[in-house]
Every structure is written in C-alpha cells, then in structure tokens.
Amino acid sequence: MTNFDTRRASEPVSVEMSSVAVRFGELLALKSVDLTVRPGELFTLLGPSGCGKTTLLRSIAGFNCLAEGHIRFNGRNVDQLQPWNRNIGFVFQNYALWPTKTIFENVAYGLRMRKVPRDEIVRRVAGVLDLVELGEVASQYPGQLSGGMQQRAALARAVVIDPPLLLLDEPLSNLDAKLRVTLRRGIREMLVRLGLTAIYVTHDQEEALDISDRIAVMNRGRVAQVGTPREIYDQPDSSFVADFVGKANFIEGRVVGKSFVTRTGTRLDVPLRLACEASNVRCAFIRPEDIEIRSDARSQLRGTVEGTSYFGSFFQHRIALEGGQKLFVQTRTHLDLGRVTGMQIPHLTGYPELPPSQD
Ligand code: ATP
C-alpha cells in the first residue's frame, strides 16, 4: 500500500465508555461496560456470537440509545449527538457499496456530502484508492470486483473523509480464509500509517490477536478482560477468556500448599498463577503447546494417546489421564495411538471454575 499522504487534518480521538447499558425490550444486551480506547489505537471487541460486540460498536456510532451510562470522545459527551454529527468512518460486514456507482463515485460520496471542492475530491479519492491498491479499477462498478477488492473499496470510502475514529464491524467475515489473513495485515498496516483510532469487531480470535494493539474480550454483555494480545493469550484472567481465546486445557483439582493436586491425587510442583484465593481454585489451565512430551522420570503427568489430528505445522494429540480427564498436547512429531507417555507441565494458572463449555 503506497504513497498516500498520511498527514491528517483531524487528530485521532480517545473513546471513553462508562457504565454503558443498552436494552432491547426485556433483553439487557450491554451491562455496565467501562472501556477506554486510546487515541490512535487499534482496539478490538472480541467475543462469542451474541455477546454484544456489534451493539457496543453501534452505540459508539450513535445508532443505539443508551439505557444507562455515557460515551465520550476526547472527554466530550456525545450521548445526544446524531450519528452523522459524530464524524466517524464505518466499515460494514457486507461492504454496503452502491452497486450503480463506480468505485470512484462510491469513495467520493462522503466528500461530496461535505461539499469538498471537486479538484480536492479527485486528489483525495485517487490517494486513498492508491493506498488500498484499487487505483486501476476506479471506473469499475462494485459487481465487477472480487469480495476482497470490494472490502478494500469500503475501507477507502470510510477513511477518505479523514475521520478521527473508524469503526469496523466484522469487515472480513465474508472472505475466504487466506484472503482474510492477507487483508487483515493490510488493514493493520494502513491504520498504523493513518494513525487514526479504530475499533474493530470480530469473533475470530486469531484475527484479533494478529491485528490489535489491545483487545476487550466480551461475554454476555460485559467486558471479561482488556489487554494486549499477549496478555489476553498468556495471562487470561478467567477460565472463560482462557477457553475462548486459543485452545486450552483445564485440569480439575485444588491447591495444597504451593502445589496443585489433581482430582486423582497427582501433585504438580510447578509455578502457580492464581486468579482467585488459593482455597477457591477448582481447576488449572495450561496451553497445549506449553506441555512437553517426555518419557523420563521427571514427567509430572502420565496418560495414553487417544487421538491425533494433523494441522500441517503441528500435531495435536488427545491424551487421556488416569481418571478420565483429557489433555490436548501439541508437538512437531507424530505419536502412536495407545502410547503411554509422560508430560512435563511447566506452569499452571488456577481458576475458581471450569469454563462453561467444560462444566
Ligand atoms: P454476532 O457476532 O453474532 O454478530 P454480537 O456479539 O455482535 O454477535 P450483538 O449483535 O451485539 O452481538 O447482539 C447482542 C444481543 O442483543 C443478542 O442477544 C441479540 O440478539 C440482541 N440484539 C441485537 N440487536 C437487537 C435489536 N435491534 N433488537 C433486539 N435484540 C437485539
């Protein structure tokens, strides 16, 4: 993505949400959401279907009324401001391009509405189409372009007005897996160059980890955790976040002294991070790629390989422990079915409850 002039007229804003609640009839879709998005940040709302991501994004845009709470841009309350007065760029899942307008006309639309002079429109549209590498198809119609190109056109249309805030609602979900990966990198690079504040909604955890400065993981209308991708992945605050972001193992047991003792009585003397009082711990979490397969005496757990899936860059084995619990372990090498193996556990995080999917 090339020589677009990235000097911007408007400065990126901060977005502060305090005690935000949104109601649809009986349903409380958002429950007391507190979040601050910093100027220039690429901030992602991540969570399972129905957790309230889109509702929060639409509330920031002004399409939903708040039942409670406030939203501020750079400290200024925007609760009473109509969507068209919030100066926001919006990229939708379905592109929302006009089929009867050319790509140039689609991208120019927002500038025309703002009564920008014709020669400046031509210059700015050409610059932004260059940025998303669509300069050569400016005179074509959306129906003549691929899905990925249409989404880039939608992105160009959103940023050409030079918004201090860009909202993106699952912009890649209609594209195939490989294109999603290429395009999300392109979006990230473009947003970093433009330096605007962007709030991005996705339910795809890998996408969120790849593109975000920070992520808010949402669950049932609430924010479960806010952090950098590494904080969210490596130090989840709850079993819900550990389970939703990436693959997770949960071993039932309790903390005794400085050790974790499994349900079947195996004592694991490993560094323990606790998300609650030691006496309340009911399970411990470890990622599959952190477990080491070892057959020597230092192995802390033993189990039988029950199944293996091949993912190209790694194998994922399902290993049954004594007592029936299963662990997922990732390795670069194949393990034979039925093999009894030792496993070295380097560390554990203790939680008071199993995630809903395993309880
Ligand atoms: P998805 O990833 O499936 O789009 P989401 O996290 O974006 O999910 P929302 O679309 O924000 O979830 O929906 C949150 C809850 O609010 C859901 O239970 C949904 O059915 C409900 N909801 C959303 N919009 C409306 C509406 N206009 N009227 C009634 N209920 C709504």
Strand order of the largest sheet: 6-7-8-3-9-10
Task: Bin the helical content.
Answer: 10-25%
Quaternary assembly: single chain
Name the overall outline.
Answer: elongated
Number of helices, counting only DSSP H or I runs of 4 residues or more: 8
- Indicate the proportion of strand residues: 25-35%
Q: Would you tell me the structural class of the helices and strands?
A: alpha+beta
Q: Radius of gyration from the CA trace? A: 24 Å
H and E order: EEEHEEEHHHEHEHEEHHEEEEEEEEEEE
Sheet having the most strands: 6 strands, mixed
Residue-averaged pLDDT, rounded? 91
Question: Can you describe this structure?
Answer:
The chain has 359 residues and is of the alpha+beta class. The protein is built from eight helices and 21 strands. Strands 6-7-8-3-9-10 form a six-stranded mixed beta sheet, with helices on both faces. A six-stranded mixed beta sheet has the order 13-12-11-15-21-14. Strands 16-20-17-18-19 form a five-stranded antiparallel beta sheet, with no helix packed on it. A hairpin with a 2-residue loop joins strand 11 and strand 12 (259-262). Helix 2 (103-113) packs parallel to helix 4. The chain is elongated, with a radius of gyration of 24 Å. The two termini are 47 Å apart. Mean pLDDT is 91; it is low at 1-7. The structure holds adenosine-5'-triphosphate (ATP).
